[in-house]
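> call design_seq(struct)
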């Protein structure tokens, strides 16, 4: 009996070690950098701080954070996988976006403070975000620009496709948007293996589930509707991104030939744009803001 217990303990330790090292090696997907201000309460103090807002559904709540100037255009920020609303917080605070814009940061279902049941369905997430916007006391006579980083990119794109009357401009930040370049990694398969999956926390399970589903069904359905995107789009991509191949931008361009897209390509940039190159997101915001009811200035770099 004692021998069996020792064998089980050794097996458990080995399995735990495998999980740890697998996630460590795959950490560029499962762990994102964090540059959250030490004192969240001080965020956006210039304009009165921020407040949590919720969309209540039968299967849980969608959490968002609202801040900024109600008289400005609305910027909606959607984080990647896993992530949370704070992924964009430092960037927005550093560039003092709250003084000129309304800001809405989203915790996607299954992440942050959103306890909605996680499914990994893009249209479902897009619908929740649109419903949250509709129920808030916002100045929607102004323009609404939606920004999505990494996995948040296809969610933002799905929102633009499903609710074109709501989205006046789209910002795709190193988006997981091109089906051929989103093949699940080896650690996605490893994490899906039942004994391993049982050892993971909910946020890792949710992240793995949605990345696999993105490739299997979601992107193939979404790209059929790329041609319906009529609003201005700014696409930001780094060529040293090891998670999202920079060829994704060309793939998107070919399938969105009639779209009004400006590409901002950076030869030295990695995947973690909100932390490594927040100035390019600020540039994208300013570009969309300046092109409201006008045409984009044209492509810059890349193509």
């Amino acid at each position: 009996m004692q021998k069996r217990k020792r064998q089980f303990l050794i097996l458990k330790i080995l399995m735990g070690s495998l999980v740890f090292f697998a996630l460590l090696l795959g950490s560029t997907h499962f762990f994102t950098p964090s540059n959250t201000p030490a004192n969240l309460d001080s965020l956006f103090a210039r304009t009165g701080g921020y407040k949590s807002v919720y969309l209540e559904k039968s299967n849980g709540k969608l959490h968002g954070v609202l801040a900024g100037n109600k008289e400005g255009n609305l910027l909606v920020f959607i984080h990647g996988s896993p992530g949370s609303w704070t992924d964009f917080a430092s960037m927005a605070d550093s560039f003092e976006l709250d003084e000129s814009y309304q800001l809405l940061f989203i915790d996607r279902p299954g992440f942050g403070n959103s306890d909605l049941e996680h499914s990994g369905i893009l249209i479902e997430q897009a619908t929740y975000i649109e419903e949250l916007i509709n129920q808030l006391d916002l100045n929607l006579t102004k323009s609404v620009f939606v920004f999505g980083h990494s996995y948040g990119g296809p969610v933002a794109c799905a929102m633009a496709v499903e609710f074109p009357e709501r989205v006046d401009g789209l910002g795709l930040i190193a988006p997981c948007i091109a089906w051929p370049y989103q093949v699940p990694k080896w650690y996605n398969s490893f994490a899906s293996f039942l004994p391993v999956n049982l050892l993971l926390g909910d946020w890792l399970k949710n992240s793995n589930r949605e990345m696999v589903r993105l490739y299997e069904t979601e992107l193939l359905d979404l790209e059929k509707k790329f041609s319906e995107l009529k609003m201005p789009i700014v696409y930001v991509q780094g060529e040293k991104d090891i998670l999202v191949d920079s060829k994704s931008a060309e793939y998107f361009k070919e399938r969105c030939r009639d779209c009004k897209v400006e590409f901002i390509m950076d030869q030295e940039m990695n995947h973690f744009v909100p932390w490594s190159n927040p100035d390019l997101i600020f540039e994208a915001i300013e570009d969309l803001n300046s092109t409201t009811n006008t045409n984009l200035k044209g492509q810059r770099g890349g193509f």
